[in-house]
Amino acid sequence: MGQPINPAFAATFPPPVMEARRWIADKSFGDDKPLLNLSQAAPVDPPPEGLVRAMAEAMITDASTHLYGPVLGREDLRQELAMQWSGAYGGDIAPEQVAITAGCNQAFTAALSTLAGAGDEVILPLPFYFNHQMWLDMAGIRGVYLPTGDDLLPDPEAAAALITDRTRAIVLITPNNPTGKEYPPALMRAFFELARMRGLALIVDETYRDFHAASGAPHNLFADPDWDDTLIHLYSFSKAYRLTGHRVGAIMASTARLDEVEKFLDTVAICPPQVGQIGALWGMRHLSHWLAGERDEILARRAAAEAGFARLAGWDLLGCGAYFAYVRHPFAAPSDMVAKALVDQAHLLVLPGTMFGPTRQQGGSGQAEATLRIAFANADKAGLDAVVTRLAQVDL
User: Fold this and answer.
1) pTM > 0.85
2) How far apart are the C-alpha atoms of 15 and 265, rounded to whole Å?
């Protein structure tokens, strides 16, 4: 009969990026029209040389880098993050309110594991980030969908109507994955007050905060003296310092919450990778000017994407920011079929909206079938011009 499989895992959809890679596994693309892989939101270049040297020297000279470290992360990195975030957000964050994780996905799973169990509910705006939904499915937690219109902004009043006695948290991502939308400070405050009033956690994933178009703090939630009774903040060093393979993320929450998080992290990974933490700390202390340049480059690519889609007939750019353009395609076919056709016709690999929300058959509004996510972080202006040119030639 074979070994049993947890039915919650069996019912969870496969990892979307890995599924998309299978679409190109047996295909070849000529030099005259190479594949443009815009499916994954991750930098492909290595970190700056100074950061790499700092990690390498630590491995050679500091024997502790090869040992287990603190479950909640290295004290020096927790202190630096608390200090810099307190200054940037105008709040009061203590090192004891910071935990380092093996990437931001682990930060999310750790936070959710302390909040909710099987049968509980978590509110997710649509379109959702697929790994968030996957974790809820595997944990037996019901994702309650908060629809958004063409502006892609969630409505706090609509969220309030979805709250039940099983609701444990509301999840927001800003800048958003997959839409690129940056949620206004007033909207963030409205969700914070809603969560506080109803006794819920507000989980804010700010993986892409370093590429926000606005200067200054993107919200004022940390300025609230009791921020940690409601807010759980998630962050990733992967995008800022090109540390995707080293898995370094963070949670900011109450010390009581982190006591519970520690149980999860100790069981899953014991500690976050030491060398990646050393790289993240070196980056925070030495790369502010370099990171500002990275932000400028991403904002330039955002502007190029906006200009390109403005001249592309039939396509609607619904959201653009951070690493993403979220577009409505002009075809009658659903987005999963469109995305596969783009591989063959345009040599473009992008993700369909069906990977970020329910289809009509699953009770959705139709947004999923009509949209595509284009991750443009690894496409320069010439590459984005090529994307627009190729899309203009597609005939489905």
Assistant:
1) yes
2) 22
